[in-house]
Amino acid sequence: MKKTVATLGVLAISAGAATAGGIDRSGQFMGVLFEKGNYAELSFGSVSPDVSGVATVFSPTSGAASGDMSKSYAQIGGALKFKINDSLDAALIFDQPFGADVSYPAGSGYYAQGTTADLNTSAITGVLKYRLPSNISVYGGLRYQTFEAKASIPFVGGYTVNGAKDDAVGYLVGVAYEKPEIALRVALTYNSKIRHSLATTEFGGPSPKTDIDTPQSVNLEFQSGIAKDTLLFGSVRWVDWTAFDISPATYGVITGNPLVSYHKDTVSYALGIGRKFSENWSAAVSVGYETKMGKFSTNLGPTDGKTSITLGATYTRDNMKISGGVTYVDIGNAQPTLNGTLPSANFRDNHAVGFGLKVGFSF
Question: Which Pfam families does this chain map to (predicted)?
C-alpha cells in the first residue's frame, strides 16, 4: 500500500505542475529516488490549455478578441533507479523542466494576431542518495540541460528571433527524513539555476548571444500514512522567477523591455489523499494552488496563478504498476500591457485540462 499510493500521489502532483507559473512544466520532483530496490518508469502527459482575452481601450485594437493563444503540448519523462547497497542508491532521470507554446490566431483583428513563440528544454539528472543513521538521507547530483527558443511578433515591427539550442550543467542537493512503518517521508531539494548562452538571430540576421538563467528552485515533498491503507501527501515549490529574463539585444533596443521577464517569484502548493481499495487498485485526489504574481503579465504568457484538482488511479500487478490521472486547472486572470503602465487586454475565465500516464517496473 505505502509504495503504490505514494507513487499515485507523485503522479497527481506532477500533473498539476505541468500547468504551473512562468514556463514551469515538470516540477523537478525526486520521488523516484525513494522507490525500493531497482526500479524503472516511463511517463507521458498531455496538457490542453484554453487561454483567451479581449483587447482594452489602451490597445490599438480595442474590443478585439485574441482567440485561444495557447497550444496543446505533450510531456515525456523517464527514470532508472538502482540500489547499490544498503546505504547508497542512484538514479538517472529524464524530464522536460521548462517550456512554452504560444500561437495567437491570425486574422482575429487582435493586436498580437499571428504572434508565435516556442521554448523547449530537456534535462538528464544523475543523483546519488546516501542513508545516514536515524532515518535521515542526503542526496545530490548534476543536471545536464538543453534550452532553445524562438518567437515571431508581427506587432513589434515584424520582429523575429531564434535562439539556437544550447547545453549547460547545474546541480541539486537535498535531505530527507523517512519513517517507513507509517509511510512518512519529508524531502527538501534545492535545484540550482542553469546559465545558457544562446547563439541568436533577430530579423533573420546575426545578433549577440543571449544569456538566460533557468531559475533556481526549492521543492518540499511530504507524505504520511494517516489511517490503514490511507496516505496524505503534498508538496510546496518555490521558483525564483524574478531572476529569469530573456532579453535579445535588438528587441531591447526597439522596445526598451525584455522579451520575457517576471516581477515576482511563485510558490505552488499541492495537497492530496490516496487510498488503497484492494490488492490491485488505489486512487487519489489532490488539490493545487499557485500564488499570483500580480501587476502586468507578458503578452507571451497572459496567465497569473492557478487552482487545480487532480483525480488518479493506480493498478498494481506483480512487479508492474500503471498510474493514470486527469487534472483540471482554473487559470488565474491576467492583464498584459504594451506600455508598462496600462493594461492592453483582459484575460479571464481560462482553464486547462491535463492527462498523465506512468508505467513503473520493479526489478
Answer: Toluene_X
